[in-house]
Amino acid sequence: MAKLILSMDGLVLKEVPLTKERTTIGRRPHNDIVIDNLAVSGEHAVIVTILNDSFLEDLGSTNGTMVNGQPIKKHFLQNNDMVELGKYKLKFIADLPRATSANDFEKTMVLRPNMMPKPAAAGPAPAPAAPGYNPTATQPHESIARPAEAPAAAPAGPQAVIQILNGPNAGKELQLTKALTTLGRPGVQVAVITRRPQGYFITHVEGSTFPVVNGKALSLEAHALNNHDILELSGTKMEFFFK
Q: Whole-angstrom Cα distance, residue 182 to residue 131?
């Protein structure tokens, strides 16, 4: 289990395991990590943890959030990253080395032409490498992805698929073969679909507007997907179904 080590001036104050999908940080008492200091905003930042991956997002704080000395808006946390909020520091300790979990991260579906996966050619062929992960990109069409070292085995049971229903990519499909698939546009709206023993779930990760499933906006909690659910994300409609 990943955790944060809170310290100030070199003195360790406490350790916080990341047991929740959303861990909030701020000065107000309702936060999961409360830092009672005027340099810290009431709702300063949030960490979203999906499987072995954790995303840090600044919530428009007054003094900003730094990671390893650099200001960030959104950052994919890696082992030993140092998050700085005023005089306080939060050291991120990963549960597993990122290299061991790379195969569990699906390439992002960027909602624009020429970025959708093409149908597989006849006969065996090596899987293309996914683009490099760039969680701090400010351009709205950059992809969030991590490299896949090898194609993962197909999950047991029916194969889940996302199909685009509108726009230039209408008709294109993405098979959900990995444990985690990221959808959306960084800086605008991002969600992830995770494959769990109980089924497939969609979770909001980034953006002020939440994804819509069957006409209803999601909450902060993970939402179980059912066959032929209609998803709306970043102005694009998609259908989730089993083949």
A: 13
Kind of pairing, strands 88-93 and 82-85? antiparallel
Buried b (16+ CB within 10 A) or exposed e, 73-85: bbbbbeeebebbb
Residue 33 near residue 7 (C-beta atoms within 8 A): no
Q: Can you give the pLDDT at residue 144?
A: 38
Q: What is the reported pLDDT for 25?
A: 94
Q: List the structure tokens of 162.
A: 């996302």
Q: Of 127, 241, 134, nearest to 185 (Cα)? A: 134
Overall pTM > 0.85: no
Which residues of the chain are modeled with pLDDT < 70? 96-157, 186-187
Token representation of residue 232: 């709306």
CB-based contacts of 120, cutoff 8 Å, min separation 6: none
Neighbours of 149 (CB within 10 A): 13
Q: Compute the distance between CA of residue 102 and CA of residue 105 in angstroms, rounded to an integer.
A: 6
Task: Please give the pLDDT value at position 115.
Answer: 44
